[in-house]
Write a structure and sequence with these properties.
By secondary structure, the chain is mainly alpha-helical. It is built from 8 helices and 3 strands. The chain folds into 2 domains: about 60 residues, Fe,Mn superoxide dismutase (SOD) domain (Helix Hairpins); about 110 residues, 3-Layer(bab) Sandwich (minor pseudopilin epsh fold), CATH 3.55.40.
Length: about 200
């Protein structure tokens, strides 16, 4: 069975960019709903004692487990998204190595921010925008619905932004661009991204 992960900040900490009401619904209703459904689907099966990432990887390889994949992948995606946010966002937390790669692949931090927003707006329907490391190259990629870079096997996730409507509709209605700009400019946890990059093993 998998356990729900608590937020690393209070519900009101991301205001005024993401309201406590939105974050409460997002974490307590949507995210916990995926956790509960995943546990329901793995109960009394060979999946019940596996780690979340193992469940996702095994379920992704067999269409028999499509429903389980969708639920478990959404647990992972949501956890990564929540961890990608912070009330103390600062580009000063970008590590030397991450900054070096950003300048190589996007010219500047502003260039990366523009790419994140542009890609988020390109997602038709629901999904996520991910900053990933593939080889020694940073990429911003759209993933639709519950799909996740975890299953690609070729890249390391660094940051994620949820662009499902439930992530912003109570605050911004249909204005996804405004939500993306708020997140990219004010809420991204660059120290989290830097830490994930360090764990990838890529060297300076």
């Amino acid at each position: 069975m998998i356990k729900a992960k608590q937020l690393k900040y209070d519900l009101s900490d991301l205001e005024p960019y993401i309201s406590a009401q939105t974050l409460s619904f997002h974490h307590q209703k949507h995210y916990l709903g995926y956790v509960n459904k995943t546990n329901e689907l793995i109960s009394n099966t060979d999946f019940k004692d596996l780690e979340l990432t193992e469940i996702i990887l095994r379920a992704a390889s067999d269409t028999l487990y499509t429903s389980l994949f969708n639920q478990a992948a959404q647990v992972y995606n949501h956890e990564f998204y929540f961890d990608s946010l912070t009330k103390n966002s600062s580009t000063k937390d970008i590590s030397f190595l991450l900054n070096k790669l950003i300048e190589k692949d996007f010219s500047s931090v502003e260039g990366l921010k523009e790419k994140l927003i542009e890609t988020g707006l390109s997602v038709f329907g629901s999904g996520y925008v991910w900053l990933v490391l593939e080889g020694e190259t940073l990429k911003v990629l759209p993933y639709f619905n519950a799909f996740t870079p975890l299953t690609s096997g070729s890249c390391t996730p660094l940051l994620a932004i949820d662009v499902w409507e439930h992530a912003y509709y109570l605050d911004k209605q249909n204005l996804r661009a405004a939500y993306l700009k708020d997140v990219v400019d004010n809420l991204l946890d660059w120290s989290f991204a830097s830490s994930n990059l360090e764990k990838s093993g890529v060297s300076e």
